[in-house]
Amino acid sequence: MSNGNKNYQATLTVENFSSTTKLASNEIAIPVGSKESLNEKDELYNPFDYRQVEHPTSTVGSLIHLLKSSLGTGILAIPNAFKNAGLIFGFVGTIVLGFLCTYCVHIFVKASHVICQKSKIPVLGFSETCGAVFEYGPKRLRKFSTAVKYTVDIAFCITYFMGNCVYVVFIAESLMEVFTHWFPETEINVRLYIVMVMGFLLISAQVRELKHLVPFSLLANICLVGAFGITLYYMFLKINPISSVPGFSGFSTLPMFFSTVIFAIEGIGVVMPVENTMNKPQQFLGCPGVLNVAMTSVVLLYSVIGFFGYLRFGEGTKPSISLNLPVEEIPAQVVNVLIAISVYLSYNLQMYIPLDIIWRKVLSDRIHGTAKRHIGQVVMRCVFVGGTIAVAVAVPNLEPIIGLVGAICYSTLGILVPAIVDTLLHWEGELGFLKWRLIKNIILGICAIFALVAGTVQSLDQIINPVDK
């Protein structure tokens, strides 16, 4: 049983946090006690006062972490998302989706704070918050709390596995662009490039400690910034008239627009570890607040890049805008090489999250002995890499994979889950006037399900029936 006088320490700090470390792994058991609504005594408990973080993050540092989590390779796919929506609709739609994702983060973090008050626990991770909301929610649903927690963990594993499949294709296509230019007589399929990358991934995958991955993250960010700077040069080298592209592309391709933008912007998994390790967590929400400043910056940047990227390359915009650059020019070749290096260095950081879940919750208690545990780690990592390579070889088309990950994974974790959490938290007499909170969350759920179903159907159709462009 927990009590208000006991100090808990977060099991994850962001001392070594990177742009791709998005899992809050605060494994804290939910205490067994009263599950009724928050009372006056509960309100006196301030979880912020009981947080014990060995290396707390400053407000500025937390802002940087949130920016890094959303400013990744997804930004290269935003102009292609605009192609699926149209110039004007894409610009407005990106801002709306950015607001929607930010709002969902707000309600999820607030729900976590309330549950921390009820359970007298200073910090909760993403899956722990989801499980706790069921534990303290309607009595008929409390028995599902453990299952919900495991389900969310599985969803995280699937999300990052599929994200790594996207990374593999990014690497292969970037390298193929350069090698095809220099050696045009060697007609090598992109699938062969994917297989050749596997050996390098198997080697880097054996780095197990998060702190040892910090140099990988630093170098990856440096490469990405360099590549992005050169890409901007080519984007603004020529600005076509707005009339050269449609303002609205049509309804048939909208699902791919929604899925791609959600894939690029969404980073809800990073929220809890950043918020949980802030030295002033009360500055995370609110106005301006760390979250609002970070997401406003990200959404505006994505809107501008998508707008001018699509305006520059029009209907010829490719799944990654780097592939639109004139490969015969050295700077464009440098972009593709830098992107390949950046994504390669980020791959291991992405796989850290699902492998950490799998090892701690599935394999760790079943494998005994130092030698066996070492072999188990090696085998687990090799299987993971092999799985992502297999999927990438089967579907070496970047656009539908990005759409599929955005539709299935990020729309569920980023929009649907927060809507459910907020509903259950306020279910008993706190739904507001005319149950506005319930209506609002139903609308959010419908949006998430639309992105899930429509985006998945269109992505699978492009996978099954690929069109050469």
TrEMBL record:
Key word Transmembrane present: yes
Predominant place of localization: membrane
UniProt keywords, alphabetically: Membrane, Transmembrane, Transmembrane helix
Domain of life: Eukaryota
GO CC entries: vacuolar membrane
Organism this protein belongs to: Pyrocoelia pectoralis
Entry's transmembrane regions: 87-109, 150-170, 190-207, 214-236, 248-272, 284-310, 330-353, 374-395, 401-421, 442-460
Protein name, UniProt field: Amino acid transporter transmembrane domain-containing protein
Pfam family, one: Aa_trans
Ranges where the Amino acid transporter transmembrane domain occurs: 56-458
GO molecular function: L-amino acid transmembrane transporter activity
The UniProt record lists the keyword Membrane: yes
Cellular compartments annotated: Membrane
InterPro entries tied to this protein: AA_transpt_TM (IPR013057)
Topology in the lipid bilayer: Multi-pass membrane protein
